[in-house]
Amino acid sequence: MQPIRTFIAIELNDALHRALADVQARLKRDTVARAIRWVAPENIHITLKFLGDVDAARIPALERAIAQVCNDFAPFTLTIGGAGAFPNMRKPNVIWVGARGQVDVAARLAEHIDAACATFGFAREERAFTPHLTLGRVKRDASPSERQRIGALIEAARIGDVGELRVERVAVMKSDLTPEGSVYTRLAECVLRRRTEDG
């Protein structure tokens, strides 16, 4: 059986996908936007943990472990907005929109998922979790001056809040790499089950 390229994510609602498509459209008006490979709006999500190739036989046990983590979390809300770049605006490689609000809960959720995955032998994350939504990746052959222009474009765009995201579930996702880009398939949904009123 082929291994499954797997990641764990928070999916977005349709309104946010549309809002992020509008943000991309605004940025694409600048000619330097040609130096960016844009993520299809329907594929934009918040990655909690990227696992890479996973033996298909291990997926059900992994799904159960993630569901167990989700049982201990109540739904929470993030406000999506503001834009930036990794590693920085002077030499951008990844262009993103950020999140604020209950980011501490999102970080704790990511940490618990990371710990659960570690029991299956997956390496722990070295960097602290920063919730973000990738809009695009700067092409490898982009020149230093193009990168500077992209950074300036993001700063000048002054992207504010684009919407709210009520996080009620986490998805275990499969990623298929095709010449046209990545195709994502949801393998499982794990519901955040803890109710705030019962502690």
What proportion of the residues form beta strands (DSSP E)?
A: 35-45%
This entry's quaternary arrangement is: single chain
What proportion of the residues is helical, as a percent range?
Answer: 25-40%
| Overall spatial form | globular
Number of strands: 9
The low-confidence parts are none
Series of secondary-structure elements, N-terminal to C-terminal: EHEEHEEHEHEEE
The figure for the number of domains is 1
CATH superfamily: Cyclic phosphodiesterase
Global structural class: alpha+beta
Q: Number of helix segments?
A: 4
Largest sheet: 5 strands, antiparallel
Radius of gyration, in angstroms, nearest whole number: 17 Å
- Strands of the widest sheet, in order across it, are 2-6-5-4-7
* CATH topology term: Cyclic Phosphodiesterase, Chain: A
Classified by CATH, the class is Alpha Beta
Tell me, rounded to a whole number, the average pLDDT: 94
Provide a concise account of the structure shown.
This protein is of the alpha+beta class. The protein is built from four helices and nine strands.
